[in-house]
Amino acid sequence: MPDLMTIVSHGFGTLFGLFLVAFLLYWLVYELVQKKYLRAANYAINMNKEIDMIAHSCGLRHAGS
After folding, report:
1. From CA 13, how far away is CA 65, in angstroms rounded?
2. What is the SS3 string spanning 1-55?
3. Assessment of whether the complete model's pTM goes beyond 0.70
4. Cα–Cα nearest to 48, from 31, 63, 28
5. For site-directed labelling of 50, which of 23, 26, 35, 57 has its Cα 20 to 30 A away?
6. How many CB atoms lie within 10 A of CB 7?
7. Over the stretch 13-28, which tens digit does the pLDDT of each residue have?
């Protein structure tokens, strides 16, 4: 399977090739930002659960008390 630059330089016009590359880069960055947002949210939720579990094992009701 040919790579993206080969397709752009041989199969399509320059303007369409540049549009295709720009669109793919935009989509890649958008997907990475969305996934990073979800990973950060899951990390914060799980960290709070773990801290509450440690506090409970020390005899506290919540970590803030």
Report:
1. 66
2. CCCHHHHHHHCCCHHHHHHHHHHHHHHHHHHHHHHHHHHHHHHHHHHHHHHHHHH
3. no
4. 63
5. 35
6. 13
7. 666 667 777 888 887 8
